[in-house]
Each structure stands twice: as structure tokens, then as C-alpha cells.
Specification:
alpha/beta, Arc Repressor Mutant, subunit A, four-stranded antiparallel sheet
Length: 221
């Protein structure tokens, strides 16, 4: 689930915007001031920060600096149409800004656009904080590389490239057939899926990343 940090001290905006974002499937965490926002950014990963520039305690520019250190994309929420504020925010590394009052659907569009751009730049994000970089052929969790064999990475990419689709065992066997000529049979596939789940931190007894569809195959949502 996409985690969004909302840094805003207007309670009406917080209630309305939190309900809207959670209704769209995001997890929305609120921080009312600079200090709490920085603490939250440093204690847990976020996929995006929505920052009000003017806060009763502190300001959004300072929070933006912390967000950038944590490699968290930022959209500024500002009631000011002042060009200098907008330029200052963008110069600090903000990904976008939107001026209050704004339509929730417009903000949703901006959020999705920023997340798409960031995903294209950094790779593909999976649950458990896993980042897959197809260009480099690597996968990592919390900044540490997950050591995968060539066949394990090929199997992972088969799931990544078909997220949301059912993959039969026959289709997976086709996708991971070893080009060196090593035979990959049905039993070997079972072993590789179990090993991949363990390396991804996916509980083999209750998998949440690579899910088993009984009698049909597997699916990565």
C-alpha cells in the first residue's frame, strides 16, 4: 500500500483529504507540524509527502529538506500564489506543487504522476520495501541487496512483468527456462518459488507477495 505523509495543520483539510486519499487506497499518515513530520519521516519509509508550506509550528521548506534526505518525493500544498514560494519549493527539490483551494481529483492526478515518474527513475516497488531494478538486474530491501541467482531473478521478473495476472506453472516454466540448457522441471519450479519467497521475506505459509491460486498457478498483485 502506498504510504503518504500529510503535513498540514488545518484540521478540516486533514479530515477531508485523509478520507479522500484512504478512499482511493492510500495509507495516509498525518503530522501537524515540522517536528512531528521530521520524526515520522525518519522513523518509517513513505512513498510521498504532501507538505503545507505555512505551518503554525515550523514550515514545509524545512520538512522538504528531510524528505529529500530520505529520498521521499514531495508535493507542496500552498495557499499562496506567490511565485517566489513556488520557485523556492521547486529549487529545494520538490516534485510538484498545487495551490489551495484545489480539487481532490486534481491532487490525485498529481500524486499518481509523481509516483509514476519516481517509479520510472528508481525501479519497481513491491511490498516489504522491496525495490527491483530491471536495468541493473538487482533487487534490494531497505537498501540491502537481495542475492538472487539468474533463474531466481528471471522468475521474479516474470511475476513483476505480469502483476495482477494469473501465471500458470506452464507459463512460468517457459519464462524461466535456462538458456544454458539446464532442465527446469515442475518440481524445480516449486523449489525456486519457495526459495524466492524466503529471500523476499514473503511468509511461505501465508504469502502476500507471490500468492498461490489453488489449482491454477500464482499471482503477484
Amino acid at each position: 500500500m502506498i504510504r503518504i505523509l500529510l503535513v498540514e495543520d488545518d484540521e478540516t483539510i486533514v479530515r477531508t483529504l485523509s478520507a479522500f486519499l484512504e478512499g482511493e487506497g492510500f495509507l495516509c499518515v498525518h503530522a501537524p507540524d515540522e517536528g512531528e513530520a521530521k520524526n515520522k519521516l525518519c522513523s518509517a519509509p513513505f512513498d510521498l509527502a504532501l507538505l503545507d508550506i505555512s505551518l503554525r509550528r515550523g514550515n514545509g521548506f524545512s520538512v522538504c529538506g528531510t524528505a529529500r534526505e530520505r529520498n521521499t518525493p514531495v508535493i507542496f500544498l500552498t495557499a499562496s500564489g506567490d511565485e517566489n514560494s513556488v520557485v523556492a519549493g521547486l529549487d529545494m527539490g520538490a516534485d510538484d506543487y498545487i495551490t489551495k483551494p484545489f480539487r481532490p481529483r486534481e491532487l490525485l492526478s498529481r500524486i499518481k504522476s509523481v509516483l509514476r515518474r519516481r517509479g520510472a527513475e528508481q525501479g519497481i516497488r513491491l511490498p516489504n520495501g522491496i525495490l527491483v531494478d530491471p536495468e541493473r538486474g538487482t533487487a534490494e530491501r531497505a537498501g540491502s541487496e537481495i542475492r538472487l541467482s539468474a533463474l531466481e531473478f528471471r522468475l521474479l521478473m516474470a511475476f513483476v512483468n505480469n502483476r495482477g495476472r494469473l501465471l500458470t506453472r506452464e507459463k512460468l516454466l517457459e519464462d524461466i527456462w535456462d538458456i544454458a540448457g539446464d532442465f527446469v522441471n515442475d518440481n524445480t519450479l516449486t523449489v525456486y518459488i519457495k526459495r524466492l519467497r524466503v529471500k523476499l521475506g514473503d511468509d511461505p505459509q501465508d504469502p502476500q507477495i507471490i500468492k498461490t491460486v489453488r489449482g491454477l498457478g500464482y499471482r503477484m498483485d
